[in-house]
Amino acid sequence: MNASQCDERSGDVGLLFLRVSGGLFLLCVHGMPKLLDYTAQLQLIEDPFHLGAHLTLILAIFVEVLCPLLVVAGVLARLACLPILFVLLVALLLVHPQWTVAEGQFGWLLLILFATVFIAGPGRLALNTRLPGVLRHA
Asked: What stretches pass through the bilayer (predicted)?
């Protein structure tokens, strides 16, 4: 294996680590609590677009459960990053505009992480590389 192949492999491993760790973090810390305790979360969810608590929570569950699973698997990863990035920006800029960078640091770090996956793509260690057609190029 030459140096170029080694660099490519380590880049793919890095993207895999980024996708899996970031996706599982978002899923476990934000998505699963909403999914598993739906009723309690209805009382807590912010509704910045006045869609109603139920619809807002359903959309949040989609973004924080389904999208991270797609990112972890590397299937439609770039597309799955878009709703995540949107929700993070809404949370940081509209829902919690009073937060300092220090108070919102985890949100900003998640924004950086998922923006990186969006820019770089899932890498070659992703399920989409094994799937035919449109999923390979997304």
From this structure: 12-32, 52-72, 79-99, 105-127
